[in-house]
């Protein structure tokens, strides 16, 4: 494993060297960097000499030095004294450096160079432009950005051919100044390390002690495979292969398979026993078939509803019901055409199958030289709705739908934006297939019209200043808006149609105009005004415009409410306040105007005064709503604290407390240690179940190599499951 890290170091530094081999086509440009600089030209030798501070620019590179000599005929640049070369994110430092911008030959007596995550130093650096190779004596390569690296490789002589191989003579691997082992001659390909192991140990109440192992094998530059071998003391042994590929002409994708003979599988959400043989198969592929022409394929099979939740928690939190589909998409300037096939592969999930469905979308576009604009959506396909409860019968039908709309955007009085629109929709349904269905062939016609009206006004106070609140000028922007939608009663009510694309309960206001409102089969009459008001208060901080206050209010005024609707929808408020650069407050409110109570309230405060500590606290309240299921309400308080004890130690904790019954639903504690070349995290989590399961405890230890990290910095801030296994 340590040998693999050394190869990675040298591979990256080789890419760094190769940057200096790029072609130079322009003459270098000289300029002095101090008033005491002296520039002279020697006509006998053709040398341009600059002393007392000089800067040389060539292509995308910059060279600075105390003095430099340049010969235009030969292309040779000789720099001395505090020489520094910056190019393509790479920095070279030395006392004396010679570089020929024509032949690309490079030489230095001593040098230091670095581009995270790799740093190097040595003596007698030379290059061979014909072989595209570099040689250095008494060289050292490390991933530590320190004067005295904790882990590095030294060699009496190193020869590097970027992208090909490395040859080290009298090489030694050192921890500090202590040599670990020696190699008289070491030849190694820079084509990449072919195989390695990854081990993740931990403990979880549901699993007992566990070890997640994976053996990775790199077949070539385009294909990498892995074999997962996971051992759980309470659950058994899980295994499965993985494959990743990336071919420019074929596309990129990933395939995974996992199987376990589960010793304690438990019950599914319907309280039925889960079979002990559990598995999942996962495949994704995407490719570019041509200009703006793409193909995407995803297949997600699982043997039961809980296998992803039980063994791949991080994946489950991102998507509890992954979809299986294949989609072709072609785009032009004003049009796009897609073909979507979406079958059901997991019979315990409710799904709308599309077998297949084609859609032609006309983006909003001007009609010739007229002031009118046009947009449309047309789709056709065979749709089938299947249920996961094992009781409700599936049904299917062919559906063809076409929508067209004309708009006339105008600006009146140079301040009022008005966009009237008129449109129509025709939908065809074949006779519905399915047990005990009575819906025969039918059509539905929908007419719609309306207008959107908005304006924007602002005022600036250039002299408004306050050092305490970090105010440097103020600008207030106000944007009132009104969107009117009128849809007379369609020729068919939703209850007369098969429901495939139907309206799903949402905590936010759904779109009211077409084509944004896409619940095609739930379209009904509408006579509604959407009222909106946005306010912004802006200032300049650190040279950038920043919103000090951003507040949006919006609601729907239903002029003719449908059955079950009130005159007004809920009133929504979204507010963000940043009184200081280190403090932010946000609020999301939803108020039921008819019943006179709060339906939802979310508030968050975040404090980040420096890189030593940060704190956030939030409150999420949601009133029980039968539309979202039984016991859907919550009154959740969450906190997150990070504190950096020193350069090497840090601590983070998060808690989620349910105030309705006083239960601490989840708490996570993580201790971080910086080992210079490595970082490690020790995490401890406690979760209280709401479905009668025992309290779940998890302990995990993760080591992360800085030069080639598995996890990005701060990856666990919002996704702490990153460090707790799969």
Could you write a compact summary of the structure shown?
With 726 residues, the protein is mainly β.
How would you describe what is shown here?
Residues 1-25 have low confidence and may be disordered. Helix content is 4%, strand content 61%. It is globular, with a radius of gyration of 33 Å. It has 3 helices and 41 strands. The chain has 726 residues and is mainly beta. A hairpin with a 4-residue loop joins strand 8 and strand 9. Among the domains are: 2-192, no CATH class; 608-726. The strands form 2 sheets. It has a 26-stranded antiparallel beta barrel. Strands 1, 2, 3, 4, 5, 6, 7, 8, 9, 10, 11 and 12 form a 12-stranded antiparallel beta sheet that branches.
What integer value in Å does the Rg equal? 33 Å
- Counting DSSP E segments of at least 2 residues, the number of strands comes to 41
Report the helical percentage: under 10%
The major beta sheet can be summarized as: 26 strands, antiparallel, barrel
Number of helices: 3
Write the layout of secondary structure elements.
Elements: H1 2-18, E1 29-32, E2 38-42, E3 47-58, E4 61-71, E5 76-87, E6 90-100, E7 106-115, E8 118-128, E9 133-142, E10 151-161, E11 165-175, E12 178-189, E13 195-204, E14 208-218, E15 223-232, E16 236-247, E17 251-261, E18 277-290, E19 293-302, H2 307-311, H3 313-318, E20 325-331, E21 335-342, E22 351-366, E23 373-386, E24 395-407, E25 410-412, E26 416-429, E27 433-434, E28 442-455, E29 457-466, E30 471-487, E31 526-541, E32 544-558, E33 571-580, E34 583-592, E35 597-607, E36 613-622, E37 634-644, E38 649-658, E39 663-674, E40 678-687, E41 696-705
Antiparallel strand pairs: 1-3, 2-3, 3-4, 4-5, 5-6, 6-7, 7-8, 8-9, 9-10, 10-11, 11-12, 13-14, 13-41, 14-15, 15-16, 16-17, 17-18, 18-19, 19-20, 20-21, 21-22, 22-23, 23-24, 24-26, 24-27, 25-26, 26-28, 28-30, 29-30, 30-31, 31-32, 32-33, 33-34, 34-35, 35-36, 36-37, 37-38, 38-39, 39-40, 40-41
């Amino acid at each position: 494993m340590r040998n693999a890290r050394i190869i990675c170091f040298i591979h990256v530094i080789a890419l760094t060297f190769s940057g200096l081999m790029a072609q130079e086509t322009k003459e270098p440009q000289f300029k002095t960097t101090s008033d005491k600089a002296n520039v002279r030209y020697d006509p006998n030798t053709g040398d341009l000499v600059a002393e007392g501070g000089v800067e040389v620019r060539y292509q995308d590179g910059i060279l600075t030095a105390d003095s430099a000599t340049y010969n235009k005929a030969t292309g040779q640049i000789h720099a001395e004294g505090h020489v520094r070369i910056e190019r393509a994110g790479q920095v070279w430092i030395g006392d004396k450096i010679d570089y020929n911008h024509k032949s690309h030959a490079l030489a230095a007596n001593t040098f230091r160079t670095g581009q995270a995550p790799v740093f190097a130093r040595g003596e007698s650096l030379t290059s061979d432009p014909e072989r595209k190779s570099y040689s250095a004596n008494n060289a050292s390569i490390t991933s530590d950005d320190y004067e005295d690296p904790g882990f590095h490789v030294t060699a009496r002589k190193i020869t590097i051919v970027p992208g090909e191989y490395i040859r080290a003579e009298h090489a030694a691997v050192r921890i500090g100044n202590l040599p670990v082992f020696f190699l008289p001659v070491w030849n190694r390909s820079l084509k990449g390390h072919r195989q390695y192991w990854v081990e993740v140990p931990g403990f979880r109440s549901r699993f007992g002690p566990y070890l997640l192992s994976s053996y990775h094998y790199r077949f070539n530059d385009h294909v990498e495979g892995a074999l997962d071998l996971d051992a759980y003391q309470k659950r058994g042994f899980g295994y499965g292969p993985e494959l990743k590929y990336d071919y420019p002409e074929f596309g990129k994708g990933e395939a995974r398979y996992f199987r376990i003979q589960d010793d304690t599988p438990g019950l599914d959400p319907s309280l039925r026993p889960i079979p002990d043989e559990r598995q999942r198969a996962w495949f994704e592929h995407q490719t570019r078939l041509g200009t703006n022409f793409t193909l995407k394929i995803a297949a997600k099979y699982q043997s039961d509803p809980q296998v992803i939740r039980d063994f791949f928690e991080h994946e489950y939190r991102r998507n509890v019901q992954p979809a299986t589909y294949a989609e072709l998409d072609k785009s032009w300037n004003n049009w796009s055409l897609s073909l979507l096939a979406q079958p059901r592969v997991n019979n315990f999930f409710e799904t709308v199958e599309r077998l297949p469905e084609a859609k032609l979308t006309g983006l909003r576009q001007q009609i010739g030289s007229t002031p009118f604009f046009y947009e449309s959506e047309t789709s056709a396909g065979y749709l089938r709705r299947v249920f996961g409860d094992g009781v409700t019968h599936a049904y299917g039908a062919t559906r063809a739908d076409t929508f067209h709309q004309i708009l006339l955007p105008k600006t009146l009085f140079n301040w009022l934006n008005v966009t009237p629109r008129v449109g129509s929709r025709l939908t065809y349904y074949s006779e519905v297939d399915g047990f005990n269905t009575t819906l025969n062939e039918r059509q539905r016609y929908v007419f719609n019209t309306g207008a959107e009206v908005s304006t924007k006004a602002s005022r600036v106070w250039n002299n408004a200043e306050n050092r305490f609140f970090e105010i440097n000028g103020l600008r207030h922007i106000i944007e009132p808006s009104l969107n009117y939608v009128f849809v007379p009663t369609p020729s068919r009510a939703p209850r007369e149609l098969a429901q495939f694309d139907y309206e799903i309960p949402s905590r936010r206001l759904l779109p009211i105009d077409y084509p944004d409102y896409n619940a095609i089969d739930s379209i009904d009459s509408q006579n509604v005004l959407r009222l909106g008001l946005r306010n912004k208060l802006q200032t300049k901080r650190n040279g950038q415009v920043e919103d000090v206050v951003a507040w949006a209010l919006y609601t729907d005024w239903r002029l003719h409410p449908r059955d079950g609707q009130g005159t007004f929808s809920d009133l929504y408020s979204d507010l963000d306040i940043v009184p200081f650069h280190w403090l932010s407050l946000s609020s999301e409110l939803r108020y039921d105007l008819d019943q006179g109570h709060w339906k939802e309230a979310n508030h968050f405060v975040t404090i980040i005064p420096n890189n030593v500590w940060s704190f956030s606290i939030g409150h999420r309240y949601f009133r029980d709503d039968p539309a979202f299921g039984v016991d859907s309400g919550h009154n959740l308080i969450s906190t997150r604290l990070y504190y950096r004890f020193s350069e090497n130690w840090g601590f983070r904790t998060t808690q989620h407390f349910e105030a309705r019954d006083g239960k601490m639903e989840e708490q996570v504690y993580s201790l971080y240690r910086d080992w210079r070349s490595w970082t490690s995290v020790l995490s401890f989590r406690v979760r209280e179940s709401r479905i009668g399961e025992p309290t779940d405890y998890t302990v995990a230890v993760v080591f992360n190599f800085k030069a080639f990290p598995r996890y990005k910095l701060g990856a666990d801030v919002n996704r702490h499951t990153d460090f707790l296994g799969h």
